[in-house]
User: Which sequence fits this backbone?
């Protein structure tokens, strides 16, 4: 038993070094300026740098929209799958896993082809304005649609794990026997028991949107990840400082999520 614990702590220690050493090196790079010594200018200049606020706000808006759309699509679909068509689960799983095997370059190439094809063939129809509207730089809906597809594997796994932990047919049947409609049964009986799964899916989607670079860059938009790369060409320390802060905020959100999920499980057991 002692040997097993020693091995476990050794693995955790190596994993910690794997993550913490590059992070520490990045922090040192941002605060150690040759000829000036230690300084925090790279961090104090973040808020005043041009494009920081607008790019971060855009990424957060895209993340919230993506979370809303993907959950509105996946939650009813997966509940219906559990209730009425469990044999279709392997098919849905394969479809939701496809974004993992499609290279982002090929995915963007397909999107660009559709965006070029639409205006050329639909210029005299009302759909032409739709193609123009979804490419609005202030809020590119096309990025939301792309991120929804990219988030499907992670959202599916999170929701599937949550649904496996509860008896969905019994919950829905009990709610229906009390006079609830199907939407009420979903909202009042199923969703409260999926709180942890919904939080996990939302967090994974948020992390995906905040860190995604390839699709946004190739489509010509500038959310937060693209802004960091663009700034790195002229202000390397600033870009690394922003990356460090983003990573720390992401870890903080993960810890808050884990703590909230733990409290929810404790409350439900009590």
Assistant:
């Amino acid at each position: 038993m002692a040997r097993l614990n020693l091995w476990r702590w050794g693995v955790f220690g190596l994993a910690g070094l794997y993550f913490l050493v590059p992070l520490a090196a990045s922090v040192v790079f941002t605060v150690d300026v040759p000829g000036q010594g230690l300084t925090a200018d790279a961090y104090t200049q973040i808020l005043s740098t041009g494009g920081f606020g607008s790019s971060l706000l855009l990424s957060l808006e895209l993340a919230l929209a993506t979370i809303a759309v993907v959950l509105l699509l996946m939650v009813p679909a997966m509940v219906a799958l559990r209730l009425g068509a469990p044999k279709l689960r392997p098919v849905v799983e394969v479809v939701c896993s496809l974004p993992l095997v499609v290279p982002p370059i090929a995915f963007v190439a397909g999107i660009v082809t559709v965006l070029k094809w639409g205006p050329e063939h639909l210029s005299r129809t009302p759909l032409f304005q739709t193609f123009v509207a979804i490419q609005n730089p202030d809020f590119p809906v096309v990025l939301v649609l792309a991120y929804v597809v990219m988030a499907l594997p992670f959202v599916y796994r999170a929701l599937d794990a949550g649904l496996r932990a509860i008896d969905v047919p019994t919950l829905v049947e009990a709610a229906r026997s009390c006079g609830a409609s199907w939407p009420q049964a979903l909202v009042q009986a199923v969703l409260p028991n999926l709180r942890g799964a919904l939080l996990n899916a939302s967090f994974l989607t948020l992390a995906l949107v905040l860190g995604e670079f390839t699709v946004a860059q190739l489509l010509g938009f500038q959310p937060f990840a693209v802004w960091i790369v663009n700034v790195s060409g002229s202000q390397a320390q600033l870009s690394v400082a922003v990356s460090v802060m983003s990573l720390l905020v992401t870890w903080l959100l993960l810890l808050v999520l884990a703590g909230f999920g733990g409290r929810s499980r404790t409350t439900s057991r009590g």
Notes: The mean pLDDT is 83.
